[in-house]
Design a protein that fits this description.
Blueprint (H helix, E strand, L loop, with lengths): L1 H34 L5 H22 L10 H25 L5 H8 L2 H13 L5 H24 L3 H25 L3 H4 L1 H23 L9 H29 L1 H7 L2 H13 L6 H18 L4
Helix pairs in contact: 1-4, 1-10, 1-12, 2-3, 2-9, 2-10, 3-7, 3-9, 4-12, 5-7, 6-7, 6-13, 10-11
């Protein structure tokens, strides 16, 4: 009975993971749709965070840390730092990069973050990288080269495409830094509470960034921009952030990373439907290589 219950729990976790990943993947498509109304990256990011902030505040008020006795004052400073790196900077670089490249290409580049986690852990935490992990890194980056190189050959403005690729890579790097460094804090706060606190920090810094750089009114855009901002906040931010926390708890990080392979695929499909983005056979092959690298990285021995 316990074995059946455990299998059922994992099956539910897989379904929740798939739903969370697909919802997260929709963010890039919504950003590209919003850019059609001539809104800048910082203003769009502000709308996303303003609509999401009340939900995170409510959850943070209701859900208390799991192990408050183990939390030190310095842990809150680390949490602020990871909130800045993982959600504020990562989102900012992502929104900037999407001004220059396709949503489908953005997702492929972002998907290398598990390999970046390995490299960061090796440099800062002296974690050993195995031969299998090295192979996974090489496979994934080969896929990026194939996909990005094919896109570059068709681009009219190569400099903009390269700039967009660099910005998305910085987004993956900052998010990977958050994943690599925050693991020891999550057991103290709990995944839901930690996510809520980190997102509140991120929202606060986005608001400050907007006030310093723009400072004007956020009103005056077409209604479609606010609809997309609200949808981005709820459908592509709040709901999937908690769904994925639950999924990782139920199935483990390694299994989740394998399921996460559908991320680029779902973005390609959504971008094809809503943005009329087309990918060549070679680009699809590059995407498959990236996914193969991540699956190779996260699969367990029999």
């Amino acid at each position: 009975m316990n074995k059946e219950s455990n299998t059922s729990t994992k099956s539910i976790a897989v379904l929740i993971a798939v739903l969370g990943i697909v919802l997260f993947s929709s963010k890039a498509v919504m950003v590209k749709l919003a850019y059609r109304y001539e809104i800048d990256a910082v203003s769009l990011l502000l709308l996303r965070m303003l609509f999401a902030l009340p939900f995170y505040l409510i959850v943070a008020f209701i859900k208390r840390p799991s192990n408050p006795d183990k939390i030190k004052k310095t842990d809150y400073w680390w949490l602020i730092g990871f909130g800045i790196i993982g959600y504020y900077l990562a989102s900012y670089f992502d929104f900037l990069g999407l001004q220059y490249i396709k949503a489908s290409l953005e997702r492929v580049i972002l998907f290398i973050y598990p390999t970046l986690v390995l490299i960061i852990s090796r440099i800062f935490f002296k974690t050993r990288i195995t031969r299998k992990q090295v192979m996974a890194i090489l496979i994934s980056y080969a896929g990026i080269v194939v996909t990005f190189g094919q896109e570059l050959s068709f681009a009219g403005e190569e400099s903009k495409l390269i700039l967009g690729g660099i910005l998305i890579f910085l987004s993956a790097l900052t998010y990977a830094s958050y994943i690599a460094g925050s693991g020891w804090l999550i057991p103290k706060f709990g995944s839901v509470t930690f996510t809520s606190y980190a997102m509140i920090v991120s929202c606060s810094f986005v608001i400050m960034h907007y006030l310093v750089t723009n400072g004007g009114s956020i009103l005056g855009y077409p209604n479609e921009v606010y609809y997309l901002g609200f949808a981005m906040a709820i459908i592509a931010t709040v709901i999937p952030s908690y769904l994925i926390s639950y999924a990782i708890k139920g199935m483990g990080a390694s299994n989740f990373a394998i399921v996460g392979s559908i991320g680029p695929i779902s973005t390609i499909i959504l971008a094809n439907i809503f943005l009329d983005e087309r990918m060549t056979i070679l680009q699809l092959a590059g995407t498959a290589i990236v996914i193969a690298g991540i699956v190779w990285l996260t699969r367990k021995k029999s």
